[in-house]
Design goal:
This protein is α/β, with parallel strands linked by helices. The chain has 15 helices and ten strands. The protein folds into two domains: 129 residues, Aspartate Aminotransferase, domain 1; 213 residues, Type I PLP-dependent aspartate aminotransferase-like (Major domain) (Aspartate Aminotransferase, domain 2), CATH 3.40.640.10. The chain has a seven-stranded mixed sheet, sandwiched between helices. A three-stranded antiparallel sheet has the order 8-10-9. The longest helix is centred in the last third of the chain and has 27 residues. It is globular and about 55 Å long. The model has no long low-confidence stretch (mean pLDDT 96). The structure holds pyridoxal-5'-phosphate. Pyridoxal-5'-phosphate binds next to α5.
């Protein structure tokens, strides 16, 4: 049998995960899995929701439809758009990565421009689909170049992965509006954002007026439900939506009904809203404490945060992955998150800061 190449390589995040698992098995010691993008302070409490699901129903047992279950799209419209979106513009996907994959296959763009520091999987996904990409140095430079980007697509991820930094919302909206006006396509992939906000956040509503914006969202990070593999796409471009639905129909014929019902119930019931609020507030307390701890102990890579502050869920620290590994801490070298390595990058690592504070500190004490 002859096999076609995927043109990708395995993710460094997964490679570190395998190494940590082997080390734990061999030594019997605990290692911190700070290589992952998994909120780990607490799990979201699903018990009050599970009790409300009727498993012996068509809702769970039958095809969900290519665009996703109506009840979930309705709940998303309420939660993210204050009911102001057209429900037909919301398409359920198998997580953010699936939404990104559909988006990059669907749009005609000369190239896709990624942030200078970017989730390494963007590059792998674009390699998989054989799409050209480059990088923008900063939001300010992107802003200056906006008028030249009409044939291109830009990915915006805020708060960022790997730096966990946040650009002010007002500036972000102005930048997106300028790009939209110039005819560039904006892929707004910010799955970490909603951990920090609730339904009173009107950011996505502001994007509804723009023609060239594709929102790629996910419940993996904001609700800690990466195992459910659910996200959504939103754009007002009808042609995009028609093509996206066809791609979903012939790739998977929809997305798992059970996870859709689960997330719809979480978003739309008082019990679910309570679980969400508790999950977010507990997670944010420890993220904040961990970042403070890193700052206080001079572990933060301050040169990368000159005009920003990390908010999470990741932070870059000034220790090499190997040194961290020797202290039983998993991390990912910063070189996985840039197109071109720079001097000194080998001494920098991305770590997850969404981790129980006490345990986090107990592992970092020996590194101070
Ligand atoms: C920036 C960014 N976008 C999208 C995703 C996709 O997540 P998922 O496919 O679990 O929704 C991730 C996951 O780590 C991410 O870091």
């Amino acid at each position: 049998m002859r096999i076609k190449s995927s043109h990708t390589v395995n993710s460094s995040i997964l490679a570190m995960g395998n190494r940590l698992r082997d080390a734990m098995k061999e030594t019997g010691n605990e290692y911190l899995l700070l290589n992952r993008g998994v909120n780990s302070v607490v799990n979201i409490d699903l018990k009050p929701i599970i009790e409300q699901i009727d498993f012996n129903s068509n809702s769970i047992q039958v095809y969900p439809g290519s665009n996703g279950k109506y009840e979930l799209r309705k709940a998303i419209n309420e939660e993210y758009f204050e009911n102001k979106a057209d429900i037909n513009d919301i398409i359920i996907t198998g997580g953010g990565i699936s939404g990104l994959d559909i988006a990059v296959q669907n749009i005609e763009a000369d190239e896709i421009i990624l942030p200078k520091f970017f989730w390494g999987s963007y590059a792998q996904l674009l390699n998989l689909r054989q799409i050209k990409y480059s990088n923008y140095e900063s939001y300010e430079i992107l802003n200056n170049q906006a008028s030249e980007l009409n044939d291109k697509a830009v990915i915006i991820c805020d708060p960022g992965n790997p730096k966990g930094d946040k650009y002010p919302d007002q500036k972000l909206i102005e930048l997106i509006e300028k790009l939209d006006n110039s005819g560039a396509t904006i892929i707004f992939d910010s799955p970490y954002r909603r951990l920090f906000y609730d339904r009173t956040d009107s950011f996505y509503q502001k994007l509804l007026a723009l023609k060239n914006v594709i929102i790629v969202e996910s419940f993996s990070k904001s609700l800690g439900l990466s195992g459910q593999r659910i996200g959504f796409l939103h754009t007002t471009n009808k042609n995009f939506n028609e093509e996206a639905l066809l791609r979903i129909t012939y790739a998977t014929n929809g997305v798992n009904s059970f996870s859709q019902v689960l997330i719809a119930k979480l978003l739309s019931t008082p019990e679910g809203q309570k679980s969400i609020a508790e999950f977010k507030s507990k997670t944010l307390v420890d993220i904040k404490k961990n970042i403070e701890f890193l700052k206080h102990n001079n572990l933060l890579a301050t040169e990368l945060y000159e005009d920003t502050d990390p908010v999470g869920i990741f932070t870059i620290i000034n220790k090499a992955p190997e040194e961290l590994f020797n202290h039983r801490i998993g991390s990912v070298g910063l070189d996985y998150f840039v197109a071109k390595p720079f001097n000194g990058i080998e001494k920098l690592s991305r770590i997850l800061v969404s981790y129980p504070h006490k345990k986090f500190v107990s592992f970092f004490e020996s590194l101070k």
